[in-house]
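Hi everyone, sorry if this is the wrong subforum. Our group has a chain we'd like a structural model of before ordering constructs, and none of us has done structure prediction before. Sequence below.
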Amino acid sequence: MNDIEEIKALLDYPHNTVIITHRNPDGDAIGSSLGLKHFLETFNHNVKLILPSEYPPVFRFLKKVDDSIVFDLVPDVCEEAIKNASLIFCLDFNSLDRITKIAPFISEAKGKKCLIDHHLDPEPFADFVFSDPTASSTAELVYQFIADTGYENKLTVDMGEALFVGLITDTGSFKYSTNPRTYATAAKLKEVGVDDYYIQDKIFNSMQKKQLELLGHCLANRMEIIPEFNAGIIYLTKQDYADFEISRGDTEGIVNHILMIEGINIAAFITEQPTIVKLSLRSKGDISVQEMARNHFNGGGHKNASGGAAYAKLEDVIDRFKKVLPKYVKHV
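Answer:
Right subforum, don't worry. Here is the predicted structure as tokens:
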């Protein structure tokens, strides 16, 4: 990062600082943001973490996550914090449309903006950009940011736990999108005192009964395999959301179960929301679901993990996915 010395100079005296991440925050968004919050607070910055929408309850074990401010709940408080901020960190998103209703406030904010992100093609809205699409996660980049500023000695267990959450959730517990730096970062966080078993247990062994019942329903009644393209789909209807009382976080990870089937290389999880149909796309190898999401579903993300949405009927979106498959996957 060419601007690291200027950023470091800004850190050295307290600011009213805002950290913001994308709507529907996942483990990397929450983990990287909290890790940075803990770090900045060691410089006596007044740090407010703003989330466009509520976070999944599975991350409640993280220190200070409940101090975050949710724009959907208190928009006036968030707007005031952004206006008063002299330093704004934008984490785990590459375009302002990912923060929806907050975007105008960030665009108009007078504070210096720093983007830390690992998605492709960041928009030029920040004063400083710390972007690397080869990184496993934004949490990995936040650790690198801390190291590059020369303050690695400030790492604490609370910081490490938050960053470790980002690492394991965006890599599927180190199964994909890894690089040598990913493991080096994990090793450094372990050295600080992070209990990786504790974190894995909190995240992956905290399901509610209804979540297991929902998973069973998805696999038994809502899964379709398309063998000629080594593909699979799971979908959920509005009625499913009502029947299972689905709330934020309940569907996390369901799409990955399709890829557990031998021979399946591309998976789609398609859900009917009140006004929109959303897609989570996953793939193996050289199949780019990022291109599929960008070209056909108004979305994007990473080569093997992306998302999108469409204002259309559920059955039409499923049909669209099937029709575009041949562009990205060879017929078997």
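For your construct planning: The two ends are 44 Å apart (CA to CA). The mean pLDDT is 95.
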